[in-house]
Write a structure and sequence with these properties.
It is a single chain. Helices cover about 40% and strands about 20% of the residues. The protein is an alpha/beta fold and about 120 residues long. A five-stranded parallel sheet has the order 2-1-3-4-5, sandwiched between helices. The protein is globular, with a radius of gyration of 13 Å. The protein starts with a strand and ends with a helix.
Amino acid sequence: MRIKVVAVDNAPELLTKIAGIFRNMENVELLACFEEAVAVVDFVRENPVDMVFTDIVMPDISGISLASSLHRLTQPPAVILMSSIPGFSLEAWKIQAFGFIEKPYTRMDVVRMVKKYERAAMSFR
């Protein structure tokens, strides 16, 4: 099972970092990277996406607003919110995000979240 992911972060260096992590994972297909969240909803509407890893604090719309918009889609992806502000983990829980990763994250943090998704997907089969 290849997991199709999208990454969203307005910090180009962090987007490059997470893209590199995904490219080195056999079971993950990185579909796209976005520096602005506004285009993500349209992309997910037009492409099957399993997971969206998104920063929370961004200039156009927040990752929380993005997650809420994605949640309303017919086939919503699992949304993982990322932030250096630990208090946002409560917000992630409130909006029923699939997960929260505190920045600065490690490769292992991302791998754990993908494995969590794999386990959840297997239980729905």
